Amino acid sequence: DTAVSQTPKYLVTQMGNDKSIKCEQNLGHDTMYWYKQDSKKFLKIMFSYNNKELIINETVPNRFSPKSPDKAHLNLHINSLELGDSAVYFCASSQRAKNIQYFGAGTRLSVL
Amino acid sequence: QKEVEQNSGPLSVPEGAIASLNCTYSDRGSQSFFWYRQYSGKSPELIMFIYSNGDKEDGRFTAQLNKASQYVSLLIRDSQPSDSATYLCAVNRLSGNQFYFGTGTSLTVIP
Residues of A with CB below 8 A from B93's CB? Predict the structure, then answer.
């Protein structure tokens, strides 16, 4: 069983569209994250949720909206997609006390 | 100043040699330190974590932490071609649970 799973793996869409990426973890962790990795491989945290509460919200355009229906799920919705949103988005989870993060396989988003 | 800095490389070592990867961080309040390996097109996977000053060994990998100098390093002994990847240093401040990754060091092990 995959510990942290993201869907879809690839997402190709036009500018201006709205899209969502889903993430689920079956590790029983209480904290989940969204990261963006750009073409230069820099991994930057976007959001972090602990027990469904938002605890980190880095400087991210408000077109990006995370939603955590429960501890095991953290979805990312993106409105009005722009070319600069093209990147690989990784979901991760951890147990807050230990802070060791486990990553999903990533979603490669291409905005045309 | 970046929170976490790494030499982007590329770093090339011959098979069987020791690869040394370095990382510095800016916040003295940082408390947890991690090394992740990322193969091209794949997700980061945890190799080592270290919380206390000194060395921590796990197989061919040794993590070294020096909080006074604010650096953490990763040594890979008997390097193998399969070790060729990008190595990401990550630092965590418990306050606010902030995680910061370095830009990664690309390592190539030459057979």
Answer: none
